[in-house]
Design a protein that fits this description.
It comes from Desertifilum tharense IPPAS B-1220. The protein is of the alpha+beta class and 153 residues long. It folds into 2 domains: 99 residues, Alpha-Beta Plaits, CATH 3.30.70; 39 residues. It contains 5 helices and 4 strands. α1 runs antiparallel to α3. The chain is elongated.
């Protein structure tokens, strides 16, 4: 499973002035088509905040890297990219994120990298430890009524 992890693809694209409606229509087709591919988990579109901004951020999630690669190398996606070149300022940026970094995706902040792994491990460990300590205070007498397989924890 580690060799083929879940992935998040972060796409940043700047649209040429006057092409916003055409890009929105194309984007709708892209998301709709991507959703038909195996392993597609969803996507989010972050549109420009104001009229002076032309930057779109599109986040795609796939269950496995292999399924993402199938989508990326598909003929239909290549056709969409060709169409998008006519509507955008440049080729845009594409980032593939795997593992715990996907928990810390910052889609509204262009160019920001996820925190270092040691910080993610520290935050996750503290959260798990805190939940474990809280569970110790629960009255656990009702667990005696459960089958031994469920009580083993």
């Amino acid at each position: 499973m580690h060799a083929d992890p879940p992935v998040t693809v972060d796409v940043v694209q700047r649209v040429r002035r006057g092409n916003e409606q055409a890009f929105e229509a194309l984007l709708e087709q892209i998301v709709s088509t991507a959703s038909t591919f195996e392993g597609y988990l969803g996507s989010s579109v972050f549109r420009p905040n104001h009229n002076d901004d032309s930057e779109y951020r599109i986040v795609f999630k796939f269950d496995r890297l292999e399924n993402l690669k199938r989508w990326e190398h598909s003929k239909v996606r290549q056709q969409f990219l060709t169409q998008a070149r006519n509507l955008t300022v440049d080729a845009g940026t594409f980032s593939i994120i795997t593992g715990l970094e996907t928990w810390f995706t910052l889609p509204a902040k262009p160019g920001m990298l996820p925190p270092p792994r040691y910080k993610m491990v520290l935050v996750s460990s503290l959260a798990i430890f805190g939940i474990d300590r809280l569970l110790m205070f629960l009255p656990l007498g009702w667990l005696a009524q459960l089958p031994s397989v469920l009580r083993a924890y």
